[in-house]
Give the backbone structure.
Amino acid sequence: MRESGKGLVTVAVEKEIRRGRTNVRANVRQIPGPCAHWNDQDADFIRETLDLVGDKWSVLIIGTLSDGPVRYSDLAYAIPGISQRMLTLTLKQLQRSGLVDRTAYAEVPPRVEYSLTALGKSLLTTVLELAAWSADRQTEIRRHQDTYDTRNA
Amino acid sequence: MRESGKGLVTVAVEKEIRRGRTNVRANVRQIPGPCAHWNDQDADFIRETLDLVGDKWSVLIIGTLSDGPVRYSDLAYAIPGISQRMLTLTLKQLQRSGLVDRTAYAEVPPRVEYSLTALGKSLLTTVLELAAWSADRQTEIRRHQDTYDTRNA
DNA sequence: CTGAATCCGCATTGATACTG
DNA sequence: CAGTATCAATGCGGATTCAG
């Protein structure tokens, strides 16, 4: 995680302090509190998880692996539009986090199969729910977007 | 969506065709089929949804809005590290897709409140499940990553 | 207060060529 | 077959400034 550290607020406050003021945010109204569902630390990890699953290819790879081991080249065939580079990189990421297993057979020509680990399968379940949500709301979301776009034409 | 269209396979096949060969992928073994859980069209929309929810800030904003309407400046305070640009942009995206409502009060100084729509709340529910998954597997994932990293030091 | 507009560095990604 | 290496381009995201 690339921690930028200070954002909008911090910078603004530092400016005020440079101007000789202190206790800048003393008598402001209720600070709304970050979020009811997770603390800042959890938020970081949620983002890490989303970085893992929320990128362009991870979900498609996981979905393709759901039926059992698949070879590298077959993944390339099964996932249209992916480049070798991204396929390799994403697989490595997933493997690093323990979601995917890599098995290389010492044959010639070489054969490498990728499969979901138990952890990966548990994520598949969760991701499928998100996918279901997407499918269910698809038309509704598109309608909203169209309305918004035409209104701001 | 920036459709690159053709990927690894298409390009390779086109090359073969240019060399005068045809029916390149005729007698290859079983094509593994894209994915059992969705078709190519669904995959696109799932990716759009992930683009919406999988970016750096959307989830944090949605989580912060879960307790009710929040003002623009309070969102900036509540979400550490976000810049004005990204706050505005992300809110606009969410609003465009119908996940967030924007209410501007004609006062001076101006006041604008953002809140979750029903659609947004339903996404919150789904996302919270993913968050729960993250929290549950956090240590396991970290352990995998550490092992992988040290092994490839 | 709530943004919009601009500039710009840098990370991500894709295309291509090459290797064991 | 299963990658790696390298380069180029795109675009995200941050900082800053301006505006209503």
User: Anything to note?
Assistant: Confidence is low (pLDDT under 50) at residues 1-6, 16-29 of chain A. Chain A has two domains: 1-37, 38-151. Chain A is about 55% helix and 10% strand. The first helix of chain A runs from residue 8 to 18.
